[in-house]
Amino acid sequence: RDGWQVLSSAEGSSRQQRLRSYVAYLQNSRQLPAQCANILATSAPATAGIQEPLSPSTPMNRYRSNINTPSSATNSPPAPLWVFVYHCLRVGDLSTVTAELSACMTRGHCEGGAAALTVLQTILQLQVPASTSRQSSRGGATLPEHEARALVDAMQQCRAQFERGAHSDESTCDPYRQLVFNLLGLANKEDLASNAIPGFSLEDFLWSHLWFIQHVRLLQPNLGSGAFNTPLVANERVLFELILEYGGADYFDEDRSNPFRYAMVLCCCQRFGDAVAHLWQSNKILPAVHLTTVALHYGLVLPHVPLDMNPSHPMIMGGRFVNGSSFATNQDPTPASVLQYFGSTPLLMAYPSVVTDYLVSLDSNWLSHAQGIEPELKETLKMKSQSVVSGVLECFLVSLSREQLVEVVGEPVDAAKTGAPSQVIRMATRTSGARLDDYLSSVQIELLLARSAYHLLTQRQEAEAAIYLYLLAGRYAEVVEELCTQLAAVLIPQVHPATKQRLQTHEAVRAHWREFSETFIDRYLHASEGNSTVMHALTQSGHRALADTLLVLTSLFSFVDAVYAGEGGAVQALKILDRLQLLPVNEQQAVAYASYSALLRPVMDDLLLMTMETTTRAYQTVQMERSRASSTTSGAGQFSGLRTDRDIQLEGLKQRASALVSFANKIKTRLNRADTVGLLTRMEASIV
């Protein structure tokens, strides 16, 4: 912060002037080691060095070794050359470095300056195409042969300067000069951890290692395989393993007071998944979530891969993965689980649109960044990623209330609520402009809603909520099919085994689904005088029979209630059944009615037995009425040999009973109970 204030207050607006002011600030603020104190009086400033005078007490002159003192040197010495060079490299200002070294070479002697200048100019030349090339992560551009030879010679000289300094007296060695020649010559990566630069920070340590990684890739194609040896294992994974050898988080954040320090180390090693895991397990939830979304956006992690296995970059894919977090966990969190947990917190659930913004970031852009992955593997990873994204969004949708669903996916249009037994009943067209419409197409949203509805049915058994999502998705066949399933489950009343009384709890559920279905039929299947959008969609998709089955099931409630009404309801029950044309009344219909909807199968056994029982009761009732009428007629002396209406009724009931047995035999394999046919046969035999 103080250094930035110095930069902001420096006179002049050029980058070079501000950088020099910052170096001057560093000279005054750093604590310098005592063993370098005797160098101070022997060093000379760079001829093009910093012009701002420093405090006479600042012990920085010792770092200006190997620079000739010009005759016009002032009493207040400028900043040393190699300090300035290092900090220019540190901030990526290679152009200023080359300008400063060129000035030193023209105005005085600077040992090793020519070699350093050649390497820097070559790097500047290679960086332009490398920054735009798709292959920049695997290597730089290729130089002409004579330029490549000059580069090798210059780097050899830089290495020689580094080796000479390594074997010199520590009290006379400039650590900044030593580090600069180590970097330019790619000489000794292991020496970076033990250099003597004053106040060498964690950022300096990481930057110097990343310099090796970047410039080995950049320069390798021009160095040749045998003429010049470079570190063969200079990549982020090796740096990461080196960090672990130091102790990982135990070394960089020993007292666990600042988990961001080690997270920064992991990011520099391109271990973005480990960085998220470290922050997450250190209870830095918001930073972990936001780093996750950024890493997903730039394709740095995969949504379904455990964090300590990310990133799956082509350079390290298939290699040895190591856990960068010192907080080992058996749960192996993934980016998907991190965002899913974050979105399920009570605070975030109050803002479903915000949760949607976070969760859709799982639709990672990694495919646009991935290189070198085989097409088969890429397709596999793509399918896994899409499956995870879909699964997370499904779990999110099924957890929302009706009001929250309106905000995320919209609501059915023309939501008339008057007289509806449940708020589920709505018009089926979904409104647009909800939050998910900002990210997904209508087709994708409808598919997601359908999958969420299926999840509610199969995993949570929440039929009513599932029907609402099916309506939003425009899946009318699934809506009608589920209504039929629910009606079939409650059609036959449940009775107490001892008292034979119908159970009130079941009656409430039965009444709800009956009213629910009748309202749906009135609003959707019989809407607008037959011009029903839902009925038209069912017909177009070949599911018109589903609507017919729903109509039959709702009418069967009246049949069942009439059966349970007692003696007076038998004839009325049979009239209702005849209007439905579901069960036969003669042998011809027994063949025609054998192909019925599979949705009626759960209730067919009970319907057959109830119909046969009702037929038997009706037969007995008509038979008793005929007997009374016959005795009255005989007492009056009237002729009784004529066939009466009651005789015709009895004959029809006998035919119905026989047709029921024939029908049951034809569908025997589709009945649920093995004794249904036998029971029907015995009841038929009682009709004499």
Describe the structure concisely:
The protein is mostly helical and 688 residues long. It contains 30 helices and no strands.
Structure description:
With about 700 residues, this protein is mainly alpha-helical. It folds into three domains: about 1-230, no CATH class; about 240-370, no CATH class; about 565-635 and about 640-688. Helices cover about 60% and strands about 0% of the residues. It contains 30 helices and no strands. The chain is rod-shaped. Residues about 1-15, about 30-75, about 130-140, about 310-330 and about 415-430 have low confidence and may be disordered.
List keywords for this structure.
rod-shaped; mainly alpha; 58% helix; 688 residues; disordered N terminus
Task: Compute the average pLDDT.
Answer: 76
Structural class: mainly alpha
Overall number of domains: 3
Low-confidence stretches: 1-13, 29-77, 129-138, 312-330, 414-428
What string, H for helix and E for strand, traces the elements in order? HHHHHHHHHHHHHHHHHHHHHHHHHHHHHH
Radius of gyration: 43 Å
Please give the count of helices: 30
Q: What proportion of the residues form beta strands (DSSP E)?
A: under 5%
Termini Cα gap: 107 Å
Q: What level of helicity do the residues show?
A: 55-70%
For the biggest sheet, the summary is: none
Count of beta strands? 0
- Overall shape: it is rod-shaped
